Amino acid sequence: MARDPVFGMEVDENITRYRAIYEGKVYYFCSRSCQKEFEKEPIKYTLNEAEERHMTHHGGFYGGCCGAPIRGVGW
Prior knowledge:
This protein is of the alpha+beta class and 75 residues long. The protein is 19% helix and 16% strand. The chain has a two-stranded antiparallel sheet with strand order 1-2. It has a two-stranded antiparallel ribbon with strand order 3-4. Strand 1 (2-3) and strand 2 form a beta hairpin. The radius of gyration is 12 Å and the shape is globular. Residues 55-63 have low confidence and may be disordered.
């Protein structure tokens, strides 16, 4: 499993059709909107890859824009 660098959730790289290559590395995404967000500003999502990302995906847990299942409680 790979981790979507925008949303932070695990993505099966063998199933997802959303991917991008940046600096020779393939990144996988849960949705087209996450892929597009990454492609606009990849450095924002790759600068601190070693750090665990928190799931803020465009403003919070509740009502994610990508249509992916959202874990947690809406705040």
